[in-house]
Write a structure and sequence with these properties.
Layout lengths: L1 E6 L3 H12 L4 E7 L2 H11 L3 E5 L7 H11 L4 E6 L5 H8 L5 E3 L4 H12 L7 H11 L18 H11 L4 H8 L3 H15 L4 H10 L5
Parallel strand pairs: 1-2, 1-3, 3-4, 4-5
Helix pairs in contact: 2-3, 3-4, 7-9, 7-10, 8-9
């Protein structure tokens, strides 16, 4: 059973999400929160698998709450709720440890699929959205320190796969580019994440830009 916490300051949105998720046999909404402070408190109490986190909430926003939750509960995944414009607050939440984001006006089916994917350890962000995110915010990411770059431990192929991920390419696109199977791509992605200590491929994108591996 996938345990979900819904954090949003709009009661009607929480109700809509709860109804969509409660209709599923494998998902259970264990708590709700109307601001970031409540979200952190409820997450510590219920230890959900997934937190649906609004970004702009009173008192404590979703960015601060996401950072607190991912630090205190590493097994809990945070899925950011955002608008179509993909504002920089949502991006900041990704850097705080969130595992992706979804649009608030997504269909019930998309919501359910996203929750299941995040609970399974996947990142929820399509290559198209990844590219848009980087177009909007890539230039704002500060440079890293090349001498301290753990990417030096990557093999040549793993480094190529990291660059491809940072360019927003999907596994099938990477497989086609390097003439390898999708299973091999998945293996390389897993090695990249493990060697760099990253939660998922979204954070691999951020890592690559922070260290100026792409530009």
């Amino acid at each position: 059973m996938i345990k979900v916490l819904i954090a949003d300051d709009q009661e009607l949105i929480r109700l809509g999400f709860r109804m969509a998720l409660a209709a599923q046999d494998d998902i259970c909404v264990v708590a709700e929160a109307s601001d970031g402070a409540q979200a952190v408190e409820q997450a510590r109490r219920t230890r959900p698998d997934v937190v649906l986190m609004d970004v702009r909430m009173p008192h404590v926003d979703g960015i601060v709450a996401t950072a607190s939750i991912t630090k205190a509960l590493p097994d809990t995944r945070v899925l950011i709720l955002t608008t179509f414009d993909l504002d920089e607050y949502a991006f900041a939440a990704l850097r705080a440890g969130a595992s992706g984001f979804m649009l608030k006006d997504s269909t019930a089916e998309s919501l359910v699929d996203s929750v299941r994917a995040v609970a399974a350890g996947e990142a929820v962000m399509s290559p198209r959205i990844t590219r848009r995110m980087l177009d909007l915010f890539g230039a704002r990411i500060p440079a890293g320190t090349p001498a301290d770059d753990p990417a030096m431990a990557l093999s040549a192929r793993e480094h190529e796969v990291l660059i491809a991920i940072a360019q927003g390419k999907s596994n099938p696109e990477i497989a086609a580019e390097f003439f390898i199977s999708e299973a091999t791509v998945k293996s390389h992605v897993g090695h990249v994440l493990a060697k760099l200590g990253l939660r998922d491929r979204i954070h691999a994108v951020i890592y690559a830009y922070e260290h100026h591996l792409v530009g």
